Amino acid sequence: MTTPASASENPTAQRLEPITTGAEPEVVGPHLAEVLHDPRWRDCQVALISGGKSNLTYRVGCDAGEVVLRRPPLGHVLPTAHDMVREYRVQSALAGSVVPVPRTLYLAGPDSVLGAPFYLMERVVGHICRNDLPPGYASTRPERAAIGEALVATMGRLHAIDPAQVGLADFGRPEGYLERQLRRWSRQWDATKIADLPVLDALRDQLTAQMPPVRPAAIVHGDFRIDNTILHPTRPGQIVAVLDWEMSTLGDPLADLGTTLAYWAQADDDEIRTAGRLVSPITASAPGFPTRREVVQRYAEITGFDVSPIGWYQAFAFFKLAIISQGIAARAAGGAMLGSGFDDYQGMVEPLALAGRYVLDGHADG
Question: What pTM does this model have?
Answer without folding.
Answer: 0.89
